[in-house]
Amino acid sequence: MDWNIITLNGSSIIMTFLFDWISLLFMGFVLIISSLVILYSDDYMFGDLNIARFIMLVLMFVVSMMFLIISPNVISILLGWDGLGLVSYLLVIYYQNVKSYGAGMLTVLSNRIGDVALLMVIAWMINFGSWSFIYYLDFLSGSVEMELISFLVVLAAMTKSAQIPFSSWLPAAMAAPTPVSALVHSSTLVTAGVYLLIRFSPSFSYWLNVFLLLVSGLTMFMAGLGANFEYDLKKIIALSTLSQLGLMIMTISVGLSTLAFFHLLTHALFKALLFMCAGGVIHSMGDSQDIRYMGGMSVYMPFTSSCLMVANFALCGMPFLAGFYSKDFILEMFSMSYVNMFGFFLLFLSTGLTVCYSFRLFYFVMCGDFNFFSSYSMAETNYHMVFGMIGLLIMSVFGGGALMWLICPTPSMICLPYYLSFLTLFVLFIGGWVGYEMAGFSFSDNLFSMHLYPVSSFSGSMWFMPFFSTYGVSYMPLGLGYDATKVFDSGWMEYFGGQGMYLILFNLGSVNQWFQYNSLKVFLGFFVMWVVILLFIIIY
């Protein structure tokens, strides 16, 4: 749909909107999830003095995402893209403290790299006659310009969807309020990069796909491994989002972009529900996010616990829940595709790790005794939060099946040998068993934790990536600044300049003062001196 904004001297400024099945479906999902999240935050943010500002920011976020979804034009995409980056920064620093500010700066600066890549895409598309990329994808694929543009788009998507080496901002962005996390991690900010890749995927060359496969596979593995060593409830769910983003981009890299979009939609449903349940639990726990303090939640918060477990099982790919239809389909199509052993191994290992951290979460939150204050009361009296969860619960159970009818109206023929068709189920069961055992061990045996310390410090810190993107980048400039201050401002310049002059004048002044305080003694001394000098002159 073309909207002619203004025509001046024969030149028209036209805004183009693309309403195909992908954009309409995605817009529907974003609007449903955001409406439930706003209903949820009515109770969650209750008592906040600036709740109107918060809701306005969330609405700006949703509008930016809409712009991104319906734009076939790179310039209007940049409008939505930058809107997402700016509003996400404002939401991450919503609770104003040092930690939030650090997380916000990390988020916004990581995303600036992607913004610059998109600006370069706009510059390279000037010679195409229009910025509507949708017209050029097929017949310009293979040209040098399109390869460069594709690479820049991949770079932009890697920053927005937090792939290696830009992963460290995603767990840091958990400083934002929980309803924002539910929106960001399900259907808006982080999925923008995946959506852009789905749109541009026809123009990707073989080598770019191989590069994408490697990066996304490693991201998926790293996030799955890190979530198994994390104790912060929100960070575990954030790392699981990172793992699923890796899965989606991996699926795009082997040419199954429709399936990646399918998983994007199903993942949005259960991930928003997962964050809402986590928010409910954190809210009831007096804002404590440590899973070691939880336990026996199924007794105290039965409805929230049920929703949490449904979302968790959907994430694992439990048969006939939303995640199963897309995840199982992706794994089976992957098994049929022409992929290398390394990519195949990474995919199935990371799927096992997903089940592993889900069962670990189940063990810590649901099993055993309550580990918080002994006389602490918990309740589910926030009706808006409960209604928000019910909406997503229904969609997490039935959404996958409904989408399967919509996206794949004709069934795909999957022909796999016996052991490959059971590999997915085998990986799920092994992952669940290892996760449960590992949680039990780390609960009871401190020796287990001590022996695993080098592994857990490496894996739990996302392969030291936050150190490289924060301390690593800022260490040298801060060190140089310190040395410069020491040598120039507090060093020789100061010694010969301000401080030195001050010291000389101070000393001279103190001598003068000594003279003035001791006037009689000084005058007598001078008198004697002059008498001695006169006598000396008279004699000689």
From TrEMBL:
Its EC number is 7.1.1.2. Keywords: Electron transport, Membrane, Mitochondrion, Mitochondrion inner membrane, NAD, Respiratory chain, Translocase, Transmembrane, Transmembrane helix, Transport, Ubiquinone. Residues 71-350 form the NADH:quinone oxidoreductase/Mrp antiporter transmembrane domain. It is found in: Mitochondrion inner membrane. One of its GO terms (cellular component) is mitochondrial inner membrane. InterPro entries: NADH_DH_su5_C (IPR010934), ND/Mrp_TM (IPR001750), NU5C-like (IPR003945), Proton_antipo_N (IPR001516). The keyword rRNA-binding does not apply. Pfam families: NADH5_C (PF06455), Proton_antipo_M (PF00361), Proton_antipo_N (PF00662). The chain crosses the membrane at residues 12-39, 51-70, 76-95, 116-136, 148-170, 182-200, 206-229, 236-262, 268-286, 298-322, 342-365, 386-407, 419-439, 451-472, 492-510, 522-539. It catalyses: a ubiquinone + NADH + 5 H(+)(in) = a ubiquinol + NAD(+) + 4 H(+)(out). Residues 6-54 form the NADH-Ubiquinone oxidoreductase (complex I) chain 5 N-terminal domain. GO terms for molecular function: NADH dehydrogenase (ubiquinone) activity; NADH dehydrogenase activity. Residues 357-537 form the NADH dehydrogenase subunit 5 C-terminal domain. One of its GO terms (biological process) is ATP synthesis coupled electron transport. It is a multi-pass membrane protein. It is an enzyme of class 7 (translocase). Belongs to the complex I subunit 5 family. Core subunit of the mitochondrial membrane respiratory chain NADH dehydrogenase (Complex I) that is believed to belong to the minimal assembly required for catalysis. Complex I functions in the transfer of electrons from NADH to the respiratory chain. The immediate electron acceptor for the enzyme is believed to be ubiquinone. Core subunit of the mitochondrial membrane respiratory chain NADH dehydrogenase (Complex I) which catalyzes electron transfer from NADH through the respiratory chain, using ubiquinone as an electron acceptor. Essential for the catalytic activity and assembly of complex I. This is NADH-ubiquinone oxidoreductase chain 5. It comes from Compositermes vindai.
